[in-house]
Amino acid sequence: MRQARIYHYRLPIQSGVFVRDQRLAEREGLVVELSEGARRGWGEVAPLPGFSQESFAQARHALIAATAAWCDHRHVAMTQLPPSVAWGVSVAQAELEQKLPTEATFATVPVCTGDPDALLQALSGPSQTPSPQAKVKVGEYEVARDRLMVTTLLEAIPTLTLRLDANRRWRPEQLSQFWQGLSEAHQQRISWIEEPCADPLQSLRCAQQLGFPLAWDETLRDHDDSELIESEYASVWVLKPTLMGDLASLTSWIDSAKTLGKQAVISAALESSLGLTQLSRFATWLTPDVVPGLDTLSIFAHQLDRTWPGAPQPLAPLHDQPLIWVNTL
Predict the structure, then answer these.
(1) Catalytic residue among 99, 240, 258, 262
(2) What is the average pLDDT value for the chain, to the nearest integer?
(3) In this predicted model, what pLDDT tens digit does every residue of 288-322 receive, in sequence order?
(4) Which of 53, 136, 195, 205 is deepest in the core (most CB within 10 A)?
């Protein structure tokens, strides 16, 4: 006998978080629980406002239809589902079928706001790797301030490398001003600059001219131009499963990156602790040599169902969340 349960959660955000310039006061999502006999599997479906192509209502509708088909032993076409639904259902199936390894390193790259002391404390946490890495958001302020922040961090921690994310905020001249204002020694400690310009072609041209390592994130989802995506000047692919689709599709992206000699990095889209622990398992399994970007749990007031090691937030059990749909066949 197959059964599906769908829970609806709302997790309050501890501090002001802005997503595409809109304040996010809470994170809303769904958790699907699939069961067959004694086996169980869980998956999180949490479209991210401003980034996901589907709304919460659309995801809810698609998830109910997909789980009804699964309970009826009908084929569920993952590629026809909204990405967040495809990811959540496929992970739940993988857990149920014991195809998603349970091992996880829980390593992540901390997001730094510019305070070297706070970063040093974060880098001493239990989930950190021996080679310190951090992520810094740039492009929100003037170029000189960004460059000073990056330089200060690199000088304060001599072995540190940085991943920079501009969220498409820089014009080409600002990007050039930033990069050329860094010393060569500091340039070599920049792992990559993610989506620097609004126009990916401008980002690509700047990477070719300036020689910095370029990472694609939104471009992987916004464009189907293989020549652009696979360009030799874009050396890193940042993969956000919640925004990209099912487990098989993400595996295909990782395989393609390896074939092309690129680095594939698993990244979060503000999932709960349940989703983050599954992303860590996925990253440990398929990208074991790359530390994923999963440092988003600190924005939440509570964890959900599964705890992230060392996280201080209290746990909100899944079965305390509203149950909105049950189907048994």
Answers:
(1) 240
(2) 94
(3) 999 999 999 999 999 999 999 999 999 999 999 99
(4) 195
Question: What average pLDDT does this structure show over 62-82?
Answer: 97
Asked whether the beta carbons of 103 and 285 are under 8 A apart, the reply is yes
User: What is the tens place of the pLDDT at every residue in 2-46?
Assistant: 999 999 999 999 876 877 777 889 999 999 999 999 999 999 999
- Asked if residues 149 and 137 have their Cβ atoms less than 8 Å apart, the reply is no
* CB atoms inside a 10 Å sphere around CB 37: 9
Residues 146-196 pLDDT 10s: 999 999 999 999 999 999 999 999 999 999 999 999 999 999 999 999 999
Alpha carbon separation from 115 to 111, 134, 157, 272, 274 (Å, rounded): 11, 12, 12, 26, 29
Q: How far apart are CA 285 and CA 301, in angstroms?
A: 29
Residue 262 among the catalytic residues: no
According to DSSP, the β-strands at 234-239 and 133-137 are unpaired
The whole-angstrom separation of Cα 197 and Cα 212 is 13
Q: Specify whether 258 is catalytic.
A: no
Tokens of 261: 């000699």
Measured distance CA(309)–CA(294) in Å, rounded: 13
pLDDT at 21: 72
Q: Could you give the C-alpha distances from 22 to 16, 25, 135, 141, 165, in angstroms and in order?
A: 10, 10, 22, 18, 18
**How close are the terminal C-alpha atoms of the chain, in Å?**
6
* Cβ(13)–Cβ(27) below 8 Å: yes
Q: What is the pLDDT of residue 329?
A: 58
- Say if residues 93 and 41 touch (Cβ distance below 8 Å): yes
Phi-psi region of 20 (alpha: psi -120 to 50; beta: other; left: phi over 0): left
The residue assigned the tokens 């310009």 is 197
> Which of 135, 137, 258, 262 is the catalytic position?
137
Q: What is the DSSP letter of 299?
A: G
Q: Could you tell me which of 2, 51, 61 has the C-alpha nearest to residue 24? A: 51
